[in-house]
Amino acid sequence: MLRLKLVASVIPLIVVGILARDRLLHDARPCIALGDTTVQLAAGPWQERFRVSFTDNRADAMVRVQLVDGPELADFTVADDVETANDDSCRVSANTRFVAISDRDPAPNLTIHLSTEPNADYRVFVSSRRFTAWEAAALIATARSGPHRIAAAL
Q: Of 66, 95, 119, 143, which one's alpha carbon is 20 to 30 angstroms from that of 74?
């Protein structure tokens, strides 16, 4: 009986740990700030999010993003070689737009083609330990589409 009570008391702790691990271990989620709006990768399924997926077929894509070899060739550059101690530009607010990347989503809000092919909608340079090329492409394509579209280049 004591074993059953022990297991019953440990199970809620395990569930809380699983749900909280992402927030505790990865507090700084990849994001970009656009004035008073931020676009950030969703931490979990409980956040209302803009869903994106990636395709290998250029014709199926709504947005085409080209990976370039240098920042001078890019419309959007992600480089995290400088650490900023008090950078709160990407804090969560009412204007935060969360993005979820899923290749299994049957109805994504946005489909992205990411490649090195020229003639893309956006050119991205990524040199980062925190951002992958897919994350950078998802954030910039989401920021530039829909109701939060921005007019000026970043």
A: 95
CA proximity to 125, closest of 61, 62, 85, 80: 80
3-state secondary structure of 56: coil
Q: What CA–CA distance (Å, rounded) separates 90 from 101?
A: 19
Pick the closest to residue 32 from 108, 130, 109, 147 (CA basis).
130
Instruction: Note whether 52 and 100 are within 8 A (CB).
Output: yes
User: pTM for the full model?
Assistant: 0.69
Q: CA–CA distance from 19 to each of 29, 75, 105, 107 (Å)? A: 16, 36, 22, 26
Position 123 scores a pLDDT of 95
Is residue 145 a contact partner of residue 138, using CB atoms and an 8 Å limit? no
Dist CA 70 CA 74 (whole Å): 7
Q: What is the DSSP letter of 144?
A: T
Helix (H) or strand (E) holding 22, with range, is: helix 2-25
Q: How far apart are CA 137 and CA 57, in angstroms?
A: 16
pLDDT given at position 37:
79
Q: Cβ distance 65 to 119 under 8 Å?
A: no
Residues of the chain with pLDDT under 50: 22-27, 85, 146-154
